[in-house]
Amino acid sequence: MEVKIGVHNATRELVLESGQSPKEIENAVREAMTDQEGLLDLVDERGRRVLVRTVHLTYVEIGEPVERRVGFGTV
């Protein structure tokens, strides 16, 4: 599952591949937004943790990964 996170005053978005379901990611974002600490905590497929303060979140896009095609033929 590809997750894109927009961060206030950052020129690039954070992109990670997560093994979590879209609903699990959505619940993590909603919980972080209501938590007093205001910290979004996600783990990517390699086990790396991404921590973002919710006051700096501009958006979180949850979607399927795009398969990259290799070669010159058209399908």
From TrEMBL:
What Pfam families does UniProt report for this protein, alphabetically? DUF3107
Name it: DUF3107 domain-containing protein
